[in-house]
Amino acid sequence: MRLLQECFVANRKWAASELRDDPEYFRRLQSLHKPEMLWIGCSDARLPPNEIIGRRSGELFVHRNVANLMVHSDLNCLSVLQFAVDVLGVRHVIVCGHYGCGGIETALDRKPHGLIDNWLRHVRDVRMAHDDELEGIDDPVERVNRLSELNVKAQVANVCHTTIVQDAWRRGQELTVHGWIYALSDGLLRDLGLCVERPEQIPPPYQID
Ligand code: CO
User: Fold this and answer.
1) Which residue in 4, 40, 59, 84 is deepest, having the highest Cβ count within 10 Å?
2) In this predicted model, what pLDDT tens digit does every residue of 67-124 receive, in sequence order?
């Protein structure tokens, strides 16, 4: 119970310190929800999105799941994306993976892990698509890290292929999808250079006019 009590103590301290800096802080936030970015990241506890990119409350719309997946039939992630793009009008969608991801590691082994193996099947599909390259990497840590990068790339593509993003582009809404990766070892983000901002950047079979 002490741990939970500590949470409430910390919360009161935090709220008080925000009010000390700005007495109108919560009143303003209450009537203003206008984040400019959507973050799709891994559920891993070591990646608190607001903290690692210095965003305050209200500045980041967030969706997290194991291995930062954007599955085209996942109503949860699709709903977050639709609300972020259509209602909040975010200008950037960031898919952020991380090196040393347990979900990615799991998709590289043969052991059973229960229900989550069905979710991580999506990572296994990414692995399958790059099997030759991944098999050529001897160091198991490097192999996990490379699959983490390839997975971010695949999820950026999945975000771009949705009707939500393509509809936004068609109506002239400014929207860029980015792929980033975070290293637990040094706390630093790397931009994978995957910026997608136009429908012509996606393969024709996925383009919907
Ligand atoms: Co992870």
Assistant:
1) 40
2) 999 999 999 999 999 999 999 999 999 999 999 999 999 999 999 999 999 999 999 9
- Annotated catalytic residue, options 77, 96, 101, 160: 101
Give the pTM.
0.95
Strand positions, DSSP E, the chain? 37-42, 60-65, 92-98, 176-183, 188-191
Number of structural domains (the chain) is 2
From the list 63, 98, 127, 143, the catalytic residue is 98
Q: Give percent of the chain above pLDDT 90.
A: 99
Domain that holds residue 123: 33-202
Cα 132 to middle of ligand 1, angstroms: 23
- With tokens 């996925």, the residue in question is 206
Contact 101/123 with Cβ under 8 angstroms? no
66 and 167 inside one domain: yes
Active-site residue identified among 12, 28, 33, 46: 46
In a domain, 115, yes or no: yes
**What's the CATH code of the domain at 169?**
3.40.1050.10
